[in-house]
């Protein structure tokens, strides 16, 4: 304040604190330097003879002198913008001080040093550079920044006529002084500076940071006597420059005139798109993005002049919050910025700065569309057709209009890019649009490839690159469904351009192997077809193409079929392998697959076996008999049709096979007759097979005997035949011999036969005598059993209920088991049919009724006989056998003693 009182205002608590600074001192406050985080304050004071520096923090209630500094006046301070320094308010970190003599001093201040250095707040104090070169030149502005998170630092310093820039790497950031590492590089080389118009004494270096990120300043500026110097940060570490271009906003042209009648601003600050200039009675906002004609750059001229507030003094910006403060002699104003960018996008648009315009309009679809339209038109007019196409594809404009613009071009790549981008922006519901654009793009790609092929450039890198691009396009997910539904149209397009290789690739990519194999077959490229079939085994492909492939490459095709194993159904494969009049080589390969199906895949399909038999008969008769013998003689066990096989064998006059098949069909006599036409040994073998049927065997052997006797008329052979067959006697074959044959030829055979008969008669006599003796024994036992009895004691118990036996009607058995009639019925009930139990109960009721109706002593003989019959019937059911010793108990031998239902319960009781 005017009275040298420092006011510290806490905005959050609405608290104003007064710090009595230099009321009694002869020193005058020259400048205040507040760090960007609001933690540290430096006050430069002085008079005509000396100057001094004071230090304060927001925690201190009084000022601290900075050592015993009595040097030149401190005119500028470069604060430390490192957030890690902000985390502690006890130290400033390394900072730079510029004085009125042109010296740059590096120091570090903080209250934490007060304890160790006996009241001093200075950790170190070192002059690191001198701009003056012996002639005192005040440093008006000073700033240093770190580039991102790298080790690169840069320093800016302004004097009345020059702008200095220092830039280099700092590898040891713990070394003190730290920034001297940068200045050391300029001890041997001249410092880099830029001549500027005369800088006003009250000017400062102002930086604007994007999104309050102190590692990424966008531009900086300061006040000169002619205008505002503004430059955008553009670091070039190789050339050691911080900015590449600058702009001077002249004060004289802010009002549309070029004379020297203008007022130099008191202060300035930056916003995102403007620079605010403070004059004694007003604030002017000047656009930083407006055209070069500064007549239109002034966007605001607001009057703050008021007698009650006094004249305006300064404008500044809080870098942490972005708030702008304006203060006059008796008031402080908070400056509110509202929709600063509402017209900036148009300026960017007119200047062709489309990316910047889009950044501003990102949340306004209508404006962003205008920007994109202008940008697309700009690219198109400047012949950047590809960039134009990419933007047009994202716009909501007429599709036909844009397409017509690109169709007129000789180059087809822009329209391809437009269509592809448009395609990726469609939804899956837009099937018609997707189909149309997809087919169009395929036509464009195919045409480009055809042009390259026709110009003999098919092997060049351009052709390969285009082909890969085409493949990548066809592999995108959005058009896969379209490709599957429009196979024929796509193939027609490719075929019209003669691109066979691409047709094959596309078919393979979409697993249309059927089309590829058919193409190979048409081209007689059997090897490729077989390779594809082997690498992509789909059963339907085998069923479809086996017929064609097996004719042209039998061995390879059958090997591939066998390799598939159980994946293929032999029945369906056979349908493809049924070929009329195959060559011997082809037939042998088909036989190989059929044998594999039967022996390895256990195929029992009758058609497969019948086909194998037919091929055996025509091409490999040696294997036929082995196959028939392996199948067996039971008609229910063979897998082929015996009737079919027999008919084929008869047609091809395969006698031995016909014999085997006749046996399977049960035609034994026909089999023997047929076997006799081949050989007697085969007939004998055939006749010896039905061992279980003696009559049939005898009949078959008689056929053979008759044949041997009548055909050969060989008595000796007939006698040997009798020795081989046990079923045939001499008397059986005598009718077959001629009448002139004498008995001398059969003497031995007749004698042998008579001896056999004699032995049979003797055996029968012995059996009859044994039977007679057995009958007599049985007869005597029956007689003795009729007179047998059992003695029942009063103490005898029922074997079921264990009560006294004689208390109720009972039954007793020779095995000594005794049961009450009721207990016997109860025991039998679970194990006999319900009908038997019902019969027993019915008989008991009848017997009870007969006893009640015939209590009279004089009973009729008829009633007694009836009662005896009922009782006899009941006894047959109840007393036929002992329940414990008879068949009922024997049949229950596999029943457990404890039922499953009660086993768990009993088990738990025992536990």
UniProtKB/TrEMBL annotation:
Keywords: Coiled coil, Membrane, Metal-binding, Zinc, Zinc-finger. CHCR repeats lie at residues 561-717. GO terms for biological process: endosome organization; endosome to lysosome transport; intracellular protein transport; lysosome organization; organelle fusion; vesicle docking involved in exocytosis. The keyword Coiled coil applies. It is found in: Late endosome membrane. Residues 747-781 form a coiled coil. GO terms for molecular function: protein-macromolecule adaptor activity; zinc ion binding. The keyword Zinc applies. Residues 2-337 form the Pep3/Vps18 beta-propeller domain. Residues 793-890 form the Pep3/Vps18 RING C-terminal domain. One of its GO terms (cellular component) is late endosome membrane. It is a peripheral membrane protein. SUPFAM superfamilies: RING/U-box. Belongs to the VPS18 family. This is Vacuolar protein sorting-associated protein 18 homolog. It comes from Aphis gossypii.
């Amino acid at each position: 304040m005017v009275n040298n009182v420092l006011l510290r205002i806490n905005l959050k608590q609405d608290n104003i604190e007064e710090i009595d600074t230099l009321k009694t001192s002869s020193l005058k406050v020259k400048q205040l330097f507040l760090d960007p985080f609001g933690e540290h304050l430096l006050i430069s004071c002085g008079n005509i003879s000396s100057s001094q520096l004071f230090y304060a923090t927001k925690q201190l209630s009084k000022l601290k002198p900075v050592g015993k500094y009595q040097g030149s006046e401190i005119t500028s301070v470069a604060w430390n913008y490192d957030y890690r320094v902000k985390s502690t308010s006890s130290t400033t970190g390394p900072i730079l001080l510029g004085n009125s003599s042109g010296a740059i001093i590096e120091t570090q201040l903080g209250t934490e040093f007060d304890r160790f250095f006996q009241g001093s707040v200075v950790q170190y104090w070192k002059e690191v550079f001198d701009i003056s070169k012996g002639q005192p030149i005040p440093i008006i502005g000073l700033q240093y920044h770190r580039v991102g998170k790298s080790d690169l630092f840069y320093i800016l310093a302004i004097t009345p006529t020059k702008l200095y820039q220092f830039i280099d790497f700092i590898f040891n950031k713990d070394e003190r002084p730290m920034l001297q590492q940068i200045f050391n590089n300029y001890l041997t080389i001249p410092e880099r500076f830029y001549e500027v118009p005369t800088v006003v004494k009250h000017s400062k270096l102002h930086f604007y940071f994007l999104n309050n990120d102190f590692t990424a300043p966008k531009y900086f500026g300061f006040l000169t006597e002619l205008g505002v110097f503004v430059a955008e940060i553009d670091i070039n570490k190789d050339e050691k420059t911080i900015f590449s271009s600058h702009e001077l906003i002249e004060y004289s042209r802010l009002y549309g005139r070029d004379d020297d009648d203008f007022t130099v601003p008191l202060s300035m600050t930056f916003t995102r798109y403007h620079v605010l200039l403070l004059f004694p009675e007003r604030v002017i906002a000047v656009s930083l993005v407006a055209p070069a004609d500064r007549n239109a750059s002034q966007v605001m001229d607001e009057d703050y002049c008021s007698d009650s507030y006094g004249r305006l003094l300064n404008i500044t910006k809080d870098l942490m919050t972005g708030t702008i403060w304006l203060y006059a002699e008796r008031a402080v104003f908070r400056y509110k910025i509202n929709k600063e960018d509402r017209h900036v996008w148009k300026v960017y648009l007119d200047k062709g700065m489309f990316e910047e315009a889009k950044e501003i309009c990102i949340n306004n679809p209508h404006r962003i569309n205008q920007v994109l339209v202008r940008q697309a038109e700009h690219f198109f007019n400047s012949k950047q057709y590809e960039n134009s196409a990419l933007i047009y594809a994202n716009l909501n404009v007429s599709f036909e209009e844009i397409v017509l613009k690109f169709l007129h071009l000789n180059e087809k790549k822009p329209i391809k890019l437009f269509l592809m981008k448009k395609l990726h922006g469609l939804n899956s519901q837009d099937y018609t649009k997707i189909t149309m654009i997809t087919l169009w793009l395929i036509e464009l790609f195919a045409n480009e490839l055809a042009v390259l092929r026709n110009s003999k450039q098919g092997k060049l890198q351009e052709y390969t690159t285009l082909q890969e691009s085409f493949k990548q396009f066809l592999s995108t997910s959005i058009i896969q469904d379209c490709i599957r539904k429009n196979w024929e149209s796509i193939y027609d397009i490719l075929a019209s351009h003669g691109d066979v290789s691409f047709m094959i690739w596309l078919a393979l990519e979409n697993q249309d192997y059927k089309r590829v194999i058919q193409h190979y077959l048409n081209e007689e490229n059997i090897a490729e077809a077989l390779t594809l079939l082997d690498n992509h085994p789909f059963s339907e492909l085998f069923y479809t193409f086996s017929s064609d492939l097996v004719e042209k490459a039998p061995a390879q095709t059958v090997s591939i079929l066998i390799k598939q194993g159980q994946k293929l159904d032999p029945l369906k494969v056979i349908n493809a392998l049924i070929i009329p009049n195959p060559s011997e080589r082809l037939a042998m390969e088909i036989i190989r697959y059929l044998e594999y199906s039967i022996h390895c895949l256990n195929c029992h399909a009758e058609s497969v076996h019948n086909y194998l038999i037919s091929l055996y008969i025509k091409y490999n008769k040696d294997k036929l008999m082995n196959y028939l013998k392996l199948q067996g003689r039971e008609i229910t066990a063979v897998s082929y049709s015996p009737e079919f096989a027999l008919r084929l064998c008869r047609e091809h006059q395969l006698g031995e096979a016909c014999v085997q098949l006749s046996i399977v069909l049960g035609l034994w006599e026909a089999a023997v007759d047929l076997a006799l036409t081949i050989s007697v040994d085969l007939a004998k073998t055939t006749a010896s097979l039905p061992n279980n049927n003696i009559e049939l065997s005898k009949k078959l052997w008689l056929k053979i005997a008759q044949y041997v006797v009548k055909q050969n008329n060989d008595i000796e052979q007939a006698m040997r035949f009798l020795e081989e067959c046990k079923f045939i006697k001499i008397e059986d074959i005598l009718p077959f011999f001629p009448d002139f044959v004498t008995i001398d030829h059969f003497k031995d055979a007749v004698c042998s036969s008579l001896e056999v008969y004699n032995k049979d008669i003797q055996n029968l006599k012995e059996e009859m005598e044994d039977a007679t003796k057995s009958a007599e024994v049985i007869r005597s036992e029956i007689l003795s059993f009729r007179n047998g009895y059992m003695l029942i004691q009063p103490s005898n118990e029922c074997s079921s209920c264990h009560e006294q036996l004689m208390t109720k009607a009972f039954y007793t058995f020779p095995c000594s088991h005794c049961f009450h009639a009721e207990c016997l019925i109860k025991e039998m009930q679970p194990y006999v049919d319900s009908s038997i139990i019902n019969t027993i109960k019915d008989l008991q009721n009848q017997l009870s009724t007969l006893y009640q109706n015939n209590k009279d002593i004089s009973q009729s003989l008829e009633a007694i006989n009836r009662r005896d019959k009922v009782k006899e019937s009941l006894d047959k059911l109840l007393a036929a056998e002992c329940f414990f010793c008879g068949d009922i108990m024997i049949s229950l031998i596999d029943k457990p003693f404890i039922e499953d239902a009660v086993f768990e319960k009993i088990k738990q009781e025992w536990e």
